[in-house]
Amino acid sequence: MAAPQHATPAPQPVQAVQPEAAAQPHHAASAQPRPVVPLSASEPAPRVPEAPSITGPFAITVTGSQAIVEQQTASYPIATVPALRDDAELQAASAPEPAGESFAQAAAFDPEPVRRSASQEQPGPASTPAPAAPSEPDEATELFGGGSGGPTDFDSLFAAESHGEPKKKRGKGCLIALIVLFAILGGIAAGGAWVYNTYSDKINEVMGWGPPKDYEPGQEKGEAFVTIKDGDTGQPISTALYQAGVTKTDSVFYDMLVDENLAVTFYPGVYKLKKQMTAEAALEALRDENNRMENTASVPEGGRIKTFLPAVADSLGMPLEELQAAVAKPADYGVQADSLEGWLFPAVYTFDPGSTAKDVIQKMVDRTRQSLKDAGVAAGDEERILTIASIVQREGHTADFDKVSRVIDNRLQPNNDETHGLLQMDSTAQYGYGLTHDGAVSSWPWKEVSTDQNPWNTYVHAGLPAGPIASPSDAAIKAAQNPADGPWFYFVTVNLDTGETVFSATYEEQQAAEKKYQQWCKDNPDGGCY
């Protein structure tokens, strides 16, 4: 607080007051004020001695004819209060002010002390202040660096100072800066999210993130049969291993061969392996002659005669021409159809030495008849069931076979007002156009495929196609014979990795499901979409 005003009305010179250790809150002035020295008109104005250095910002309060220096904080560097330099300054400082009025002005000084000349260092005797009695420093002084004029207790150290002009508020500027900062960070985050969503597969591959591409050792189970054809190299064998359930991903086996620079000779035949093997374990199994089955051949599920017959010839060491001639006459096997497509059951076969091409085909046809009988298919209805089963095999996943069968059956009903008898199955149009089942639909000349007038094109012709389009499994044949109950006319796989499929009763529902598929394709540009 400020010291009380003196009653003397005449102007008084201002004496520099030396700060002392405050013992009251708000840095109260010393209880022993300095004497006021009057000036006569003839006497020269004395110089005011330089104030001692104090710590941090402070305020000068002028009340009447006295000036009191008050320290505000104890956390700033020491500054030196400059002395008044001439008589005009002294007279201006000692001029009286109206009664009852006072002012306080916060002063900030250059941290560099003000140096004076030697003559200025000698103040007049009349203005020399009485020396202050030294005081013993208390614990607060020693702890917080207080001294003459410094804080000596916690109240004065942390008390808010009421003197001086308030500091400028910077809340609005800080808020704007924070908004700009968050906007920049948000933009960076959004950009990073877009890059990752767009190129996540590539990023994960380069950085080694994401799920592992190979199985862990010790996870082997069950049996798997892998056919290696004459001339097969690492890439097709890698795909065959994946399709048989041996390896976890399509490329892990081939990548291992390339990364380790392995030169391996593969021999044609059917190999008996286990499912869920590591790429390294699969290679060792293929190198083991004991795993190569003698006189064996395999037919893949959903395979076409045109595609798998050469592999059978290689496995058995039989001329391909003999097998092609054997399948050209369905009547030789009691089949009343123009082709044996769909009648050669998908399985692994072992033949006795000396078996002929006709023996090989007969065994496959007999296995199909056994599956038809087990499913309860009536005599004379075999070709129709095999045709439906072959479409189910090509279009659906095993868990959804019975639902796909229901979609086909619903579309074949005469009261079908959704598709008016058209199956509109891609697999049938593809087969009739002469395309293999390998590769994405995006590689097709779609306009030509969907408008071709061949009898398998179900986009053009209502009802079933001319015959089976592939070799169906036991599960597909059972589904064709016993479709699930449901109102569905449409279905679409919305996740090619998991095989998740959505079945719909109306075209509007189908369009909504197709949007899910399109979004998945957008999120997985290398997922094999069309």
TrEMBL record:
Tell whether Lyase is among the UniProt keywords. yes
Q: What's a BP term from Gene Ontology annotated to this protein?
A: cell wall organization
GO cellular component terms, semicolon-separated:
plasma membrane
Query: Which residue positions hold the site described Important for catalytic activity?
Result: 395
Q: Where is the composition biased (Low complexity)?
A: 1-33
Q: What GO MF annotations does this protein's record show?
A: lytic endotransglycosylase activity
Q: Which Gene3D superfamilies match?
A: Classic Zinc Finger, Endolytic murein transglycosylase
Looking at the UniProt entry, the stretches that span the membrane are 175-196
Instruction: Quote the PANTHER family the UniProt record gives.
Output: ENDOLYTIC MUREIN TRANSGLYCOSYLASE
Protein function = Functions as a peptidoglycan terminase that cleaves nascent peptidoglycan strands endolytically to terminate their elongation.
Family according to the record: Belongs to the transglycosylase MltG family.
Name of this protein: Endolytic murein transglycosylase
